Protein: Transcription factor GTE1
Organism: Acorus calamus
Amino acid sequence: MSGDITTQAMVSPREGVDSPSVKPSGEGEPAPHLERFRHQIDEVTFKADEIEQRVNEVAQFYLSSNKKPLNKCGSTAKVRDMKKQIMQHRYAWVFSEPVDVKTLGLTDYYEVIKKPMDFGTIKKRMEANDGTRYKHVRELCADVRLVFENAMKYNDEGSDVYSMAETLSGKFEERWQLLLPKVIKEETEEAKRCKEESAESHMDMQESQEDKIAKLTRDTSNELDELSLQLEEFREMVVQKCRKISTEEKRKLGAGLARLSTQDLTKALEIITQMNPSFPASAEEVDIDMDAQSESTLWKLKFFVKGALEAETNKTAANKGQQNSKRKRENGDALAKTSGKRSKNLPQ
């Protein structure tokens, strides 16, 4: 599909007519369709609560099955000593606390760095007495590496922070290679011990619990499908009770469709096809007659187009902000280098 789209909005003279008025069934009594909506909302809410409870049961089962910590041998202590040596390095202070994004004005930091990490956070996890504590020495090492990887990802190569992170990363990897043989040995012994314990455990009880959870998972999945269908029916009922789309709204909708990206335009055409399977959505050029579309289709298109255009606008603004932040950092680095050169040229 080339993406070419033509829209027509040949609206009948009944432009001023909105949705028909609804007569109340009696003085002080709600309209019948409002009662149906209320009943469906209560039903959907009740089902959602039931499903949430079942999902929690499934999650709790797998959490309880995985409570036994892995590798509680001496490797963690060795890594703690190794990390302590790294933190005593003269560059370590840069990474001792979370990046102060607000004070430093790093507006794009969380766009670039999806999982921030620092030595202070690592220390808290090592000393925690809850579920956040490291269960395996490799988890701890992964977070230490993440500290350096984040710094080198966000900061330009050659900058002070990048060089500090690179130096500490090299020292950490040197010490990790010395410890790795011991870690592998302990992992092998732990795997063997777990296998022996598993063979001696009550397998029948475990299998029975797993069967129960598997059935609960299947039932939950089926109910989610049913709930999805019910929500779709409810959405359709709400749309049918909405006022009619005006001529001006149809014109704006046509203009909005023309502004969509190729991907979003394809999704919009799929909305039309759902209500009108004979619609030639895959044709090279698509001619959309707005008056030929049902009110339900028009409202769905309106909501979709509005959301898609808002998302595109937000994405453009975010990209612009990221470019401005990068330019600001580059200008700051340039000024810092210039200042450094001037200081060297001053007479001693």
Q: What stands out?
A: The longest strand covers residues 4-8. Residues 9-30, 67-74 have pLDDT under 50 and may be disordered.
